[in-house]
Design brief:
Residues 2-189 form the Clp R domain. By secondary structure, the chain is mainly α. The protein has helices spanning 7-23, 30-39, 44-51, 56-71, 77-85, 90-101, 125-140, 148-157, 161-168, 173-181. Helix 1 (7-23) crosses helix 8, helix 3 packs across helix 8 (148-157) and helix 7 (125-140) packs across helix 8.
């Protein structure tokens, strides 16, 4: 499938691996792909984000929201609401766990001190599904290659923290699709 990826899309996938490595994450997650999309400049995906008001300066708010979700064990707002319906206050749980075990205790595991992973980080099931979804998005638009815009559209179309955080900042599948493929005020150059 990677032979269908454009240079920008390949750079995003490689960037996601780099973000996972720097974070000490065991696996490459969907949030790492979103962070790598933010690193791109001059691509269709970066144009669409900027057209929707998510400029590089405003992306820091998204990064903070992703970090907050990571500290909550990667639970989405929908997960937190479901727990709340059961009488469980996720913020209180996170606070108590962090009081006992330190900040970020619920975040993805890091390697034990002195232990390093060899080779590349594997992709989580969600990240693999995201790559497959990006192919479906590209085919749905009759595009021959998978670009970073297809990765972004796939992220926005899937349930979970990245789509939730993007939507909180005005970036949804519908708004991205409108900017990238017409019907909006701006259209990304192909």
């Amino acid at each position: 499938m990677f032979e269908r990826f454009t240079k920008d899309a390949r750079a995003v996938v490689e960037g996601a691996v780099g973000h996972a490595e720097r974070a000490g994450a065991e696996r490459v997650e969907e949030s790492h792909v979103l962070l790598a999309l933010f690193d791109r400049e001059g691509s269709r995906g970066s144009f669409a984000l900027a057209a929707l008001g998510l400029t590089p300066a405003r992306r820091q708010a998204v990064v903070r929201d992703l970090e907050r979700a990571r500290r909550q064990g990667g639970l989405s707002r929908a997960d937190a609401e479901a727990l709340s319906g059961l009488g469980i206050d996720l913020s209180a749980v996170v606070s108590r766990v962090e009081e006992t075990h330190g900040e970020g205790a619920l975040a993805a595991r890091r390697p034990a001190p002195g232990r390093h992973w060899s080779g590349r980080r594997p992709f989580s099931r969600g990240a693999k599904d995201l790559l497959t979804q990006s192919l479906r998005v590209a085919l749905g638009h009759r595009d021959r290659h998978i670009g970073d815009e297809h990765l972004l559209l796939a992220l926005a179309s899937r349930p979970g923290v990245p789509a939730e955080v993007l939507a909180d900042h005005g970036v949804t599948y519908e708004t991205l699709n409108r900017v990238l493929y017409g019907g909006g005020e701006a259209r990304a150059a192909g």
